[in-house]
Amino acid sequence: MPNDNQPVLDAEGFSPTTGSRRTGGRLIVLSGPTAVGKGTVEAKLREDHPEIWMSVSATTRDPRPGEVDGVNYHFMTESEFVDKEAAGEFLETAVVHGMAHYGTPLGPVEEHLASGVPTILEIDLQGARRVRERAAELGLDVVTVFIAPPSFEELKRRLIGRGTETPEQQAKRLETAKVELAAEPEFDIVIVNETVDKAAADLWNVIADEYGIPRE
Question: Which pTM does this prediction carry?
Fold first, then answer.
């Protein structure tokens, strides 16, 4: 007997009511302010749940020492990137510092979603907005997750404590963080990164709910 809450899909996997594309689950778009610890939370999540798939970005910048093509980034020439962009092969693109192109390849995202593999894209605030717009055009389902600090003072403490920036750079990052924190209401779900273990577990529960798999 059909579920009244289940969307009706046509033969090609589209819902005429929502315009959504059928997938094994929604694309998890992860973002948050600078220094909030997104990368650390992501690393813990991947350690605990290696079955998830993290989208690998494409870029036209040169590989840095130790970076591996297809693992850290998909490295390509500018002409290759521009051709793929023109062909609609990216979910989103950006030019960073007026030089290098960056983008999220669309094909692998769609393939993993269609296979029911938990699929995550970690991206900055502007990128998350571009993904949301492009996904709406494509009929691709996304759920946006914002990683937030317990407080701005705690974010400041963490940023200063890691000691990787000059005082001037720290001040600039904190001003950027204020703008990014103001975007929190734009997101579907907010996870407060009080501890890495708890934030990673909370993120997994979001993924589990989306993909119909057991929570922690």
Answer: 0.84
